[in-house]
Amino acid sequence: MRTFLTVFLGGLAGVGIMLVFRSSNWCQGLDAFINLYLQSEPNSAQVSREASLVLGAVISFALAWVSTDIARPPQRHLVAFGTIVLLITGALVLSLHGFVFSPILPLLGGIVSFVTTEALMKVGPGAMRRKIEETFGPSLSRRARLVLAENSSSDFSHPRLSRVSILTLHFEPPERYLQVMQPDEWANMNRLYLRYASDYLCEVGAYLESVNANFLRAVFGAPLSLENPAQVAARCAHEIITRLEKLNLEADSLWRQFLEFRIGLATGTCLIGNFGAPRGKPYAVAGVALDFSIQLCEIAAFYGCKALLCSQTFQEAEETVEVRPIDLIRAPDGSDVEIYELLCLKGGLSPERKRSRDAFWSGVNHFRAQRWDEAVEEFARARIKGIPDSVIDAYLQRIDSLKKNSGSPMVSDMRLPHRP
Fold first, then answer.
1. What is the pLDDT of residues 222-246, one digit of tens each?
2. Which of 294, 296, 289, 297 is nearest to 268 (CA)?
3. What is the DSSP letter of 420?
4. How does residue 317 score in pLDDT terms, banded at 50, 70 and 90?
5. 24 phi and psi, to 5 degrees?
6. Interval 32-52: pLDDT, tens
7. pLDDT > 90? residue 1
8. Disulfide: which of 12, 141, 229, 346 matches 165 by Cβ 3.0-4.6 Å?
9. Is the Cα torsion angle 148, 149, 151, 155 positive or negative in sign?
10. How far apart are CA 152 and CA 147, in angstroms?
11. CB–CB of 298/386 below 8 Å?
């Protein structure tokens, strides 16, 4: 609403000045001079003032929209200057074909409209949108920026605590691929994956907090507030897996290779606001959940999982996704953090996969109770014929090791941050 109000006021100012100038003696004298200058033939047709007024109104509202829609000042000024040049050259070209057109009214309306809108964007209803455009740029989708501009009742840039979910998408480093691919081939493949993932995350309203060749990190719940960011992030994680697995087929047909990827999803209270590095993004997010999501990607690679969730994410997204427990992680403060593998959306398990998941869960419970034989039996039941399961293999290896060394811990002593 703010954007349309700014465009309306700017365009109205342009139309108003044209109506005032049209009825003045200045306009009549200037029009007579221009018509005399442009009239190349005695019988040249005269373009009416009403037509010039209509064209001026269109240009006024168009330049007002340009001023609100383009974030970078040089681009806005270039469009405005180009419009002026086109009007003048258009009048000259029409005169060569026997038409006399005075560009005074459209020029005046367009300039006043553009200047008025620029002023409103700095001190009026459009100021918030301009600030949002300059702060987030392509890291936030256009639709999300519009929603944020329309709904911002407070200063989003002021540092504050907020409940967010962090999704980190990690790609396998290039060393292995460069043994069989040229550097430019790997770069093109990596760019394709990043574009697919980042476009989708922006589309659903996530903020791309960090993007580089090896990983992409998105924030759900800031700057756009969400009632349950964990549920939205979990659904998006599942969709990313689906999309990138389809992309694997395309990449394999092009390069005979495809990128391995892992997803870590952590939820917690983080500090958000404009406190980023001077040469980096102004809007930043700080909190344990950021590091936790990265390390969940590392654990996912160890177990051979596509996506892992922390316990807080699972608790808040339990109604959205199907999971299975993977491990208990010993945090530095001595607490145990449960992590889960994302399997599919709620209700998406086939009867066979549901049976396998339930048997695996039972096996994990027996494992933690140190009932080794029962755990092995349940893990054997959890296998689906013809489908390898690296997590079950890892548990069977641990059971074998624990039988030989009964003093080994039941909880993985990984150096993870505190429970988010």
1. 998 899 999 999 999 999 999 999 9
2. 289
3. -
4. very high
5. -90, 160
6. 656 655 554 555 566 677 788
7. no
8. 229
9. positive
10. 8
11. no
Q: Find out whether 106 and 11 touch, Cβ atoms under 8 Å.
A: no
CA distances from 215 to 64, 232, 256, 340, 369 (A): 39, 20, 22, 21, 37
Q: How many angstroms separate the CA atoms of 219 and 167, rounded?
A: 6
Residues of the domain holding 121:
2-125
Within 8 A by CB and 6+ apart from 79, the residues are 63, 66, 70
Residue 113 tokens read as 């409209």
* CATH code for the domain of 399: 3.30.70.1230
Rounded-to-integer distance, Cα 306 and Cα 244, Å: 11
What would the two tokens of residue 121 be? 């964007």
| Statement to judge: residues 232 and 109 lie in one domain | no
Last residue in a domain, options 125, 159, 178: 125
Structure tokens at 359: 């048997």
Tell me which of 125, 140, 164 is where a domain ends.
125
Residue 227, token pair as written in the block: 């009632």
